[in-house]
Amino acid sequence: MTTPVLTTLAEILACPTDDRGWRTLPDGRRIRLGNDVALGDYAILGNNVSLGAYVTLGNDVYIGDNVNLGRDVHIRDRASIGNNVTLGAGITVGSDGRIGTAAGKVQP
């Protein structure tokens, strides 16, 4: 398991994709982005995170390892998604919401 760290959209997009759409960041984390993904300030992403098309992450959001967010998922400010969570299309997690075990907040 990796220690999730702050991640910007620009940092992710700067990394090339493999044949399955995964991008490997300099620290070894793997992230896959769909079209028109938006990340708020201070997003913390784990390893093996897949964000479907039109996913939005609010400010100060924590996403654990092995997380799959389907199309049009919206994670509001200060929400946490724990490890090994899959959310289907169209789900919204409200501000300060928590889903999954160990849906803690790693302080930057």
Please describe the topology of this protein.
Elements: E1 5-6, H1 9-13, E2 22-24, E3 30-33, E4 38-39, E5 44-45, E6 49-51, E7 56-57, E8 62-63, E9 67-69, E10 74-75, E11 80-81, E12 86-87, E13 92-93, E14 98-99
Parallel strand pairs: 3-6, 4-7, 5-8, 6-9, 7-10, 8-11, 9-12, 10-13, 11-14
Antiparallel strand pairs: 1-5, 2-3
Structural commentary:
Helix content is 5%, strand content 31%. The protein has 108 residues and is mainly beta. The strands form three sheets. A five-stranded mixed sheet has the order 1-5-8-11-14, with no helix packed on it. The longest helix has 5 residues, at 9-13. The mean pLDDT is 90.
Would you list the SSEs in sequence order as H and E?
EHEEEEEEEEEEEEE
Portion in beta strands: 25-35%
Rg estimate, integer Å: 12 Å
Return the CATH class: Mainly Beta
Per the CATH scheme, the topology name is: UDP N-Acetylglucosamine Acyltransferase, domain 1
Low-confidence stretches: none
CATH superfamily: Hexapeptide repeat proteins
Strand order of the largest sheet: 1-5-8-11-14
Structural class: mainly beta
Tell me the major beta sheet. 5 strands, mixed
Total DSSP E strands: 14
Can you name the CATH architecture? 3 Solenoid
**Helical fraction:** under 10%
Number of domains: 1
Q: Which geometry do the CA atoms define?
A: globular
First and last CA, distance: 18 Å
Averaged pLDDT: 90
**Total number of helices:** 1
Keywords:
UDP N-Acetylglucosamine Acyltransferase, domain 1, mainly beta
